[in-house]
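Title: Prediction job returns without error message
Component: structure pipeline
Severity: low
Priority: P3
Assignee: unassigned

Description:
Job completed but the reporter wants confirmation the result is attached to the right record. Sequence as submitted:
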Amino acid sequence: MSSAVPTVPFGGLVTRPLIRHLARPLLAFLGVVLAGVVGFITLADVGVVDATFWLLDPTSIELHFAAHEGPETLTKAFAVVVLAGLVVSGLWIGETFISAAFGGQLSREFTHMQIERAVDDLDDHVIVCGYGTFGKTIVSALDNEDRDVVVVEIDETQFEAAIDDDVLAIQGDARNEGVLAEAGLERAGSVVGAVDDANVNIQTVLAAGQLAPTVRLVVRVGDETDATLARRAGADEVVIPEVLSGKQVGTSV
């Protein structure tokens, strides 16, 4: 399939969703490190380097107080608390990462990263907004013509269906300019509003037309009234599936 997800080498940063899951444990770990360094500096009047080293080697605390006066017992107690915090936050990070990996999230993130790279390499492709029955039919027809396609789908189930069908897909609202940009709108040849909602498709036309005035805009609507609105919004071609199917049936009869 011309728009199939390519195989790319492993590497790069894991994208945003996984980072969001790791953010809290990472921040907790960094918070414990910072609190430990500040605490050691305050309690024992040592430098930043020594305080940081004590995080790695708490036995150095005893060597320090063998040659210096100060609250040795309190400092050692504080070191135990800091060490416990580092262990707990470290386990939290590990548990989050392993959970993501075995839960399939890590695999999804790498797939999405591959898709982003593939979309960046496309030019004169077709952006199909919506992967319902109508959208799937369009994607299939374009594939038969060996055209590159990027699907934009907000629904989780239909988005995953596109991924399963080896289609390049971006999850998000096609009316959002950022989502259209992520789908490579500025390099696209055409945009098809294929959602089963004429208002959404018309709003998509407006957004796409503002970002890329030269892109060809094809819009699905429900009736002639919507068709008029779509043309006023800038659609180059308006499709009413019911009318087309009715004419097809009439011809076959």
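Comment from assignee: result matches the submitted record. The chain has a mean pLDDT of 85.
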